[in-house]
From TrEMBL:
Species the sequence originates in: Lojkania enalia
Alphabetized InterPro entries for the sequence: 6-PGluconate_DH-like_C_sf (IPR008927), NAD(P)-bd_dom_sf (IPR036291), PDH_C (IPR046825), Preph/Arog_dehydrog (IPR050812), Prephen_DH (IPR003099)
Keywords from the named record: Oxidoreductase
Biological processes annotated in GO: tyrosine biosynthetic process
Coiled-coil region list: none
Protein name listed in UniProt: Prephenate dehydrogenase
PROSITE patterns assigned: PDH_ADH
Length: 374
């Protein structure tokens, strides 16, 4: 078709697959040309601006059924959650959308737009912020972590591979969710505050206060017996390393993981409540966090390392700066600032994207298969 107007006039079912920040302008342009009685939906990760645009610019006779696949393009959609939002549609129109999307063999989850945005913020926003901050810290230190013996082992492999996987994608995939979702903004802000406050306690050597806070957060988030770990153990994930594995693993305080649980605690979020809508990245992040907090010896090692060992101080400093910087850019709504920072770091890591993407896909596949078995 020469243009979107003719597409809209001819189509019975239309899906707007555009960046969240552009959804209003695109729907304003082509929405009025929508075919009489058609079904319209969108695939953005933030539904508030999407549904608002549909309500504002689409004819009243048009049905609105939106969707969102909760996984990245490199993940097999079979069995993964696919959110369906029946905002304005007859039973017949909604059934048609379900049939049309059934070819993905995903697990349909039915939510309102408000539920979707809250759950998406809970399961994605802070997860992305943590990995983005890691990449920013490593690039600021002019460091490729897989070349350092400090970042070795299963937990470190998850951090490295997923960070590179995120930076190998388009910046707007993460910017739209972070900036346009109010719940996401609040959570990213709290994560930056948790990182900062814990880092200050580490610098001051306040072991008792630091330890009490970590244990209180862990008790609140992991208070019930949830059965088996969601993620494979260190020794299993070792094979997904980008670098060589030395004989001895250096101790790490895992500030990024400690701050995540502190953030969930402060916000009253129980991550298990949203597992039906969780992305593979979130399940991996929750899995390694759970593994750390359910291993008393490893958790105490992290606390002791945080207070007494300066090995990771420079990395932790840059990580704290990065978390605060990402939060500021998100709070100010700076799409251009977000893009500039993202692409600068993206260029730094670009040479390793092909290998990291391959390893990341294998790791996600293995972990998903393991969780299905459990």
């Amino acid at each position: 078709m020469p243009n979107g107007h003719l597409v809209s006039r001819a189509s019975d079912y239309i899906i707007y697959s555009v960046e969240a920040k552009n959804i209003d302008a695109v729907v304003e342009t082509f929405g009025p040309s929508t075919k009489l009685g058609a079904i319209v939906g969108g695939q953005t990760s933030c539904k508030a601006p999407e549904i608002t645009a549909f309500e504002k610019h689409l004819p009243k006779d048009v049905s609105i059924v939106s969707c969102h696949s909760l996984h990245g393009p490199g993940v097999d959609p079979r069995g993964q959650p696919l959110v369906l939002i029946r905002h304005r549609a007859s039973d017949a129109d909604f059934a048609f959308v379900e049939r049309a999307l059934s070819c993905l063999n995903s697990k349909h989850v039915y939510l309102t737009r408000q539920q979707h945005d809250r759950i998406t913020a809970d399961t994605q926003a802070v997860t992305h912020a943590a990995f983005l901050s890691m990449g920013a810290a490593w690039s600021a230190n002019n460091q490729f972590p897989w070349e350092s013996p400090r970042y070795i082992g299963g937990i470190e492999n998850v951090k490295i591979n997923v960070t590179l996987r995120i930076y190998a994608n388009k910046w707007h995939v993460y910017a739209g969710l972070a900036i346009l979702n109010p719940d996401a903004q609040k959570q990213i802000k709290q994560y930056a505050e948790s990182v900062t406050e814990l880092f200050k306690l580490m610098l001051a050597g306040q072991r008792e206060e630091f330890s009490n806070r970590i244990h209180a957060a862990g008790k609140a988030v992991f208070k019930d017996d949830r059965g088996k770990d969601l993620l494979l153990r260190d020794e299993v994930l070792d094979r997904f390393s980008l670098g060589t594995i030395p004989e001895k693993r250096l101790k790490n305080n895992h500030l990024s993981l400690l701050a995540m649980v502190d953030c969930w605690w402060k916000l009253g979020i129980v991550p298990y409540d949203h597992m039906i809508c969780s992305t593979p990245l979130f399940r991996m992040w929750l899995g390694i966090t759970e593994y750390l907090f359910r291993n008393p010896a490893l958790l105490e090692e992290c606390i002791d390392t945080a207070i007494t060992d300066n090995t990771f101080r420079a990395d932790d400093l840059e990580f704290t700066f990065a978390a605060r910087d990402w939060s500021s850019r998100v709070s100010l709504g700076h799409f251009d600032g977000y893009r500039e920072k993202f692409e600068q770091i993206q260029n730094y890591f670009a040479p390793r994207f092909p290998e990291a993407t391959r390893l990341g896909n294998e790791m996600i596949k293995t972990i998903l298969e393991k969780t299905r078995e459990d």
